[in-house]
Design brief:
The structure is a homotetramer of 334-residue chains. Chain A is built from ten helices and 14 strands. Chain A has 334 residues and is of the alpha/beta class. In chain A, strand 12 (231-235), helix 7 (253-260) and strand 13 (265-267) form a beta-alpha-beta unit. Chains in contact: A-B, A-C, A-D, B-C, B-D, C-D.
């Protein structure tokens, strides 16, 4: 961490600050210029409050040199992590498609979709049993019954299952769920992150609606700090001023995250765009951008879907885009 | 809700849609123009998936006529709600200042600040015992010990206390807390909202970092739907592209919320700006804008504060701004 | 346009409004429901001030049914426009790469880069002679000399040239420029748009830093309203809260724009990301998303570039990404 | 400017970079730590391309220590600038209200409004003759005729006049205009800024829709670099994801700008909110926040206004808010 002092700082003020910094167990290197003084802080600076430091009268500016995340940092773990998802690997060259309906609605629906997406090449089945809805009056999911139906679809098709957990008190009934999704709205629900950090479940961590990539990595760090390193990151669109699409899919986050972290990155174009007609081109673009996987909503009857039907592909549309995506993957792998 | 059909819709398609809508228990009024057909949907349309409707081939556009929030809607409750905060009323002409440190650190600190802010005119004491921090390596609060120290400060000064709850499993130890704060990052933690909706505690609900005012009201609706109508809304700055301030304080939300809802609105300029030197003018502006209260961070020793010292006022600065604010309140009340 | 009146509107108020609307030469169709009255406005509603209408006491809400853009609207021109760029077609299945340095610096530089990018498959040469810089103290371009050097590179290589016009008073010296670029900061410089709308030059119109797709189309409409329909749209990243990339590339705008307009859409990943290491994956993603072309910065010596060197590819990097992009194009075309 | 080198940089690489930097006429001070090397750059660093520097292989990060703006920087000009607006001073304790219609429509309209706002205490008259409209089909203003009508209103009332210039070729007909407004969409129309920088007209520079405060100051710097230092800055709302208000009024920019620059800051709540019912509370808030003036839209007949009627106050509403604002100004001055 580097701290620049203002030109008119007295020696006494400077020494007072250095004393305070050393009290926080960092070493301070002084570089005296003719205009300003630079303090280089060496050691574990993760505890230093950068905003407090910046607010001091004598401080011109402060800059963190090293990233505040450690366990997910590629610097300390240069190889890609390969994350096991109920037998399906994601990351490190292993690409996988997660598909299924927004919500689990019935046995026929979920088993039918599972068989269909498997036939088209999906490797994991998604389906929501607990749904975060903006309105308390909207359908909130089938809860335990939904999870039981997902398990049945898993038994029939062999596809591992992905489902969202919203309340740690429900953890027990997620035993058969292979990948626990933490939704965008809970990305900074730190108590939930700490709790799942003490489990050994594979976690799909979605980027919050208006969170930076560094915040996403710090949330992954919360889980990893508890001992659980089985994390897949997921980009699902960010909130901007543009209203034509539900959110703005930030595809450049794929190469950025691959640079910053060893964790795999999956892209969800369904929630990002909110319109099924925009999903296919964003699936192809995500594959071309180097994503480690795709998560897509598929519904056999989007018009009757209880939730988010507008963004679901039909099984036929999904099958078509899977074939085209496969060609793109071949093209970028060569 | 109004649905506009595309010009080339056939009668059969139109009737099929109407049949589907009526199956969702709304009445449909048809207005046939020479260019387009307008369907007026009457009845309880809160369950209709507006995005699904919009995605249909034959639908040009859909518009909700009535707001999706009910219990917090001023239309159905024209008078201002006055919320009791441990004996201190907020709303409906009752203005109150909530002040205190970001985090509770020690008995001396919290009791000293409580006495000091009370002397300057604060009506409630705030202090964090559970702190949502972006990094798992940052100070997370004193937890139960912090709440005990807050209670002691309350006993000494008589000030009711405000503190943030992050995990519903901690509810029991918040018994002596008069106002439970739900932080910005948990504004859409719907499970937490549902749980506190079943209590009778007064809730200070902070607007999320990137949430619209309608989403804020829908989150209030989650709490009220459970039976708890003791809610104070709090604006604390939203995330924008501007980086000079930590967030952008959206003061125009005060008159907007007063129009949409009967719930009181409090403004927190400390978190919004992130810099103590910007806080005083934003306190005055919030008072002039018609806020029902202000929440400000005050610390006797900002430079040593364990959290967010950069944005805290000293007791002397707080005393000064309180005097100036009092004059502004008089000016706008006349 | 649809206007919904509030439940308590009197007949007299309603008739007064209808009279006023009819005075603006639109026909009004009334649909009386039991709760609210809907006015359907038919005819040329482009002149109606939607915000004024919304602000009236008796009006609940207003919704525009048809888009406010006409000449660039795909509804009235279903086939893709193919735009001629000095002999190179773009749009309607014709894909082209525009490459070159941010700024023209010298004869050797621009001719050398032109030869190099042509060898790698670029179809047009870009180079800035007038540079919009945030600071008045930064390099502003070689102006007329820069354009002369571009012409020379065109003569040597045969590549048509693309360069930015910032001031209509400079139009004369752009005679030999095949495609005039209107930069992001001038997207709503309406006087400039009107002026170039009266020329017959091909225009590359960049989306503004914080402009919606509808605003981009309205700016195209400004040019087309003057008679010039030779327009190519360009996505170059939008401003969001994320700071890791310079801007956020909004790739989903490609399928959205293809739906709304017949004009071709080109993607500029260099300005969007601001980092050369992120450019290749965004080139591939843009090609996969269905863009009609790519605009990329290439510099033979990025470290000495007078402007934006950070985001330029070297000729070798460009050659490599061109080969990979070609494969992606083949994959998505099949 | 401070440049931090990566831990594994060789001495040769470091010396190569220093040589390059010295070639750009800055002195380089080396501070060798055990982990990283810090280069302190002293001298005129305004020409150094910070993004290029950051993109180099061996560079960890770069930080500018001094602001890139000079002439508008408060550091080099500690006293408030007082700007003359046709005889009315703004800044340095001189507060003034600018009021009038969005567009000049007729002699009766503009003279009538001028007399009315003068009676209520306005010090300057605003009125648009050239209107930047998103659509080419919307009313674009009366142009020269509008300016002539403004002059007449000035003659009758003695109020100096403020009007927007969109095209430098129109400068001649602005001779009688006391304050030239540069609109939000032209804040980075650098050629226009340079041209008006060579005049001696007073300029009201509006912040762009999505521009940072630093960019606003850099645009002021463009004008000042040409010799014209008569500049008033104007906050008029920024673009965010919130849709309830047209834009989000960033009132915290008032204390921020007062800290960074000596130029006065005026607030326009009419364009920011877009709804006349929100304007009064934002006028009071801006006055309380320490603004040097307010710019408000007033129209004698908002329902028939040709442009932006939705956000205009009636003369009676304006008179009322002026009285309340006066009391707030007294309160904050004490």
């Amino acid at each position: 961490m580097i701290t620049v002092l203002k030109p008119n700082t007295t020696d006494e003020q400077r020494d007072h600050l250095i004393h305070w910094l050393e009290g926080q167990k960092v070493q301070v290197h002084i570089s005296q210029g003719d205009q300003y003084t630079i303090l280089g802080l060496v050691g574990d600076t993760t505890h230093i409050d950068i905003e407090l430091l910046e607010s001091l009268e004598i401080v011109q500016s402060v800059k963190r040199v090293s990233e505040p995340f450690k366990k997910c940092n590629r610097k300390f773990h240069p190889e890609d992590s390969v994350i096991d998802c109920g037998g399906v690997p994601i990351g490190g060259g292993h690409f996988a498609v997660i598909a299924g309906p927004c919500s689990v609605e019935s046995r026929d629906q979920i088993v039918g979709i599972a068989q269909s997406v498997k036939a088209s090449g999906a490797k994991l089945l998604r389906g929501g049993a607990f749904k975060p809805r903006t309105s308390p009056y909207d359908f909130q999911g089938l809860h335990a019954d939904g999870l039981a139906l997902l398990s049945e679809a898993k038994k029939v098709t062999g596809l591992p299952i992905v489902s969202e957990l919203m309340d740690i008190r429900d953890l027990d009934i997620f035993e058969d769920v292979d990948v626990i999704q933490i939704g965008a709205r809970n990305m900074q629900n730190f108590e939930l992150l700490k709790s799942i950090g003490r489990t050994n479940k594979t976690i799909l961590l979605k980027r919050g609606l208006a969170n930076t990539l560094k915040e996403l990595l710090m949330s992954a760090e919360y889980i990893m700090a508890g001992g659980n390193e089985n994390i897949i990151l997921c980009e699902r669109g960010i909130r901007t001023y543009e209203t034509y699409t539900r959110n703005t899919l930030d595809l450049s986050c794929v190469p950025v995250l691959h640079e910053l972290t060893h964790l795999p990155v999956v892209v969800d174009p369904s929630h990002a765009t909110g319109h099924s007609n925009l999903v296919p081109s964003m699936v192809l673009a995500a594959a071309a951008a180097g994503a480690d996987g795709i998560m897509v909503e598929v519904h056999n009857d989007p018009i009757h879907a209880l939730c988010d039907g507008a963004q679901s592909l039909t099984p036929a549309q999904f099958d078509d885009v899977m074939k085209r995506m496969e060609k793109v993957l071949e093209a970028v792998r060569q």
